[in-house]
Amino acid sequence: MAGSRERINNGVVTGGVEDAYGEDRATEDQPVTPWAVCIASGHSLLRDPRHNKGLSFTERERDAHYLRGLLPPVVLSQDLQEKRLLQNVRQFEVPLQRYMALMDLQERNERLFYKLLIDNVEELLPVVYTPTVGEACQKYGTIFRRPQGLYISLKEKGRILEVLRNWPEKSIQVIVVTDGERILGLGDLGCQGMGIPVGKLALYTALGGVRPSACLPITIDVGTNNEDLLKDEFYIGLKQRRATGQEYSELLDEFMTAVRQNYGQKVLVQFEDFANHNAFTLLAKYRENHLVFNDDIQGTAAVVLAGLIASLKSVGGTLADHTFLFFGAGEAGTGIAELVALEISRQAKVSVEEARKKIWLVDSKPFKKRYAHEHEPIKDLLGAVKAIRPTALIGSAGVGRSFTKEVIEAMSSINERPIILALSNPTSQSECTAEQAYTWSQGRAIFGSGSPFDPVKYNDKLFVPAQANNAYIFPGFGLGVVISGAVRVTDDMVLAAAEGLADQVTPEHIDKGLIYPPFSIIRKISANIAARVAAKAYDLGLASQLPRPKDLVKYAESCMYTPVYRSYR
């Protein structure tokens, strides 16, 4: 028994079971080797989120994989596990606590996490993504438990390829990367923006069926200009001001080159929540030679265009018959305007320059000059509405409550069915609420928002607000790119995604005020979008997955990851 007791000799802890690796014999200042067992069995199997099934391991599996005694005796079905976990999540009243519970589950049991998310997508989407993910990013330093994804900072300059090779998965199909400078409507959150790539890729898997192991979240840390974070003792990133100019562009160049060198040219790199001045520059710089997609510019544009196309099923006419007023012309507003102009030019067979005459932007930054019109100066949004008389008012300025009662009443006096899209996130930044839009328009508005709103009852009619959520587009878009082996992303592929989403909206949806189909059928929607995107890639000669499948919708569905448990030998 003496050998099992701990002894302390000269400050060194010894004893216990045999110290084969010398860990206990080492003093605190001596390095030890972090040995790990790689065979997924016994205790290590229960700690492996990809293969862990918790109480769903069968009697035979418990014997075969040395789990006997490591689990309580009951065997539960995956459905029963899901039911119990959903009850547990619902017990938390604070959304951030729900978020943390779901992230813990993802790190513990991957398949159960995705089954829970897929089966309860309408309830849990606002928890794993906007608006809750915004608060999670703000508090990422204090709620940080285990690192998720890959962190590349200025410290790694010159060694990014080496850092990428540290990631355990070698077959990556989709990367979501942020530099944390413009997280939702919350501004510069620096390294704590990692919550965004992690959340987006969870949706790539749950909604688009891309395998979790093929997804890689990355945060590029070039510092932060957020004074609160620089003073925060728990901040997890570099405590320095943001690198800009040549230093910044060299790091991004090295990153893009390393990604291509390590994973090939068919890995989709999705830029996420970069500040406007970098977002447009990076997309323009890399889109010709890399497979890149900016969700804030192209994804938002596609989902809003789909909503506008679907709205016309109620309003009537084609896009070219209407006028569009954008309030706020950052990357989202400008991206939407460009895609709408492109769709008008395709439909009406006119030049993009001619199509832009239907679009007005309330902003005056340089990259909006192409939308400048000959007009008397207009002082404010209300004046713009009265002067321009638009069919649709689209807000993406991040200025909360800017669609006032007067603005919406003016839109309603001009249009029988005014289209009001309040796209800014999170909810506090929304240009107006659903209730305000329906009430001030006397129930006539076709309303969509960036953040979720509860159904609204007006004059005994129940209106279900449509959420113009990018999650309608990017998972299916990414799946389409992956299954076709596309080597570039073009505007025509983004248009195809928008048209594919709009096609899923039925007259019944329109009657309820919905300009998007319900999220409950999101995997069906994603498969249809993927098929449209893949078809366009094949038509343009950009697809490398040959031969072309005969039925692209069925092929997309067959490629989608399903989270049901596998049986183990």
UniProtKB/TrEMBL annotation:
Record's keyword annotation contains Lipid biosynthesis: no
Keyword Metal-binding part of the UniProt annotation: yes
SMART domains: malic (SM01274), Malic_M (SM00919)
Cofactor remark: Divalent metal cations. Prefers magnesium or manganese.
Domain called Malic enzyme NAD-binding: residue spans: 297-538
Keywords: Metal-binding, NADP, Oxidoreductase
Residues of the active site: Y129, K200
Xref: CDD domains: NAD_bind_1_malic_enz
MF terms in GO: malate dehydrogenase (decarboxylating) (NADP+) activity; metal ion binding
The protein's assembly and partners: Homotetramer.
NCBIfam families in the record: PRK13529.1
Listed name of the protein: Malic enzyme
